Protein: ABC-type xenobiotic transporter
Amino acid sequence: MPGAIYAEGLVKTFGDVRALDGVDLDVPEGTVLGLLGPNGAGKTTTVRCLTTLLRPDSGTAVVAGIDVLKHPDAVRRSVGLSGQFAAVDEYLTGRENLQMVGQLYQMKAKAAKARADELLEQFNLADAADRTTKTYSGGMRRRLDLAAALVVSPPVMFMDEPTTGLDPRNRQQLWEVIKQLVSGGTTLLLTTQYLEEADHLAHDIAVVDHGRVIARGTSDQLKARTGGERVEVVVHEREHIRAAAEVLQGFGKGDTTIEDHMRKLTVPVTGGAKLLAEIIRELDSRGIEIDDIGLRRPTLDDVFLSLTGHLAEAKDEDTGETQDPKNRKRGKETAK
Ligand SMILES: Nc1ncnc2c1ncn2[C@@H]1O[C@H](COP(=O)(O)OP(=O)(O)OP(=O)(O)O)[C@@H](O)[C@H]1O
Ligand SMILES: [Mg+2]
Structure:
């Protein structure tokens, strides 16, 4: 039996762009799927197809047990959506926006008001509740948009980059809200550029690239697939980077990644602490001085990098520019 969200072979083209090239997904009821992928991979297009905002060219999709292509209206009544770009009415206040959503879902006025109050409190918007949302900051709009998606608790929710542009405290709070929601039985498909978020919230992760799911599994499974541990070395002298790379390559189980500006080298290994000692001896015998060396497990960043060839990027909401969350991208190259 298919899960609460099921898609098979979804294809969507825009002119020459094949945004979705056969997306398959299956999300069991009451679980969270994290959809990860670089910019332009097809995440938003997938969400839009599954929530009836776009009609796929081909493929099948079933959400909450309802065929998305055959019964889009019924699907709309069963899903909640919070989009990548906040969709609030600028000329209404925060409170009015939420009450309006409640009424759209045929809630009684009193119930809609009570629910709005509850959500305004939960999303730290109580103080600004009676201002028009035109005056809201980016993070406030985003929170209001998320609150709007939660006015009624639909069995299936879609959230497209829910915490982009939120400060760390608001992000943490949203994570708590999401956890509560899921423990109440909601099924959630979440896209995010913050891999830590996927690690924290998602039972399962699907990595998309070029309109296809290229890897699927739990965070631990994907990390294990990416291969054992990593040795990270920071050399003291920039001139020693190449020589150190040669040493690491000899011990590594894959390519050595070099971050020039930080004089840092990273290589996947198997063999743990014993290997670390050997590497230190070898570097020492070649006169390569090190500032730091350590062993760490692969992160989801490593998974993302090895699968898609580049690091996840986070968009800065104020500037609209694309930035690397950990500022690690510049000068990053791979020694073959
Ligand atoms: N309405 C549209 N018209 C033309 N091309 C589109 C349209 N919507 C999406 N695309 C293209 O489809 C591809 C997938 O876009 P999509 O928005 O799904 O990516 P995404 O994974 O959500 O990226 P991001 O991380 O930047 O949000 C991109 O090449 C994009 O330019
Ligand atoms: Mg998107």
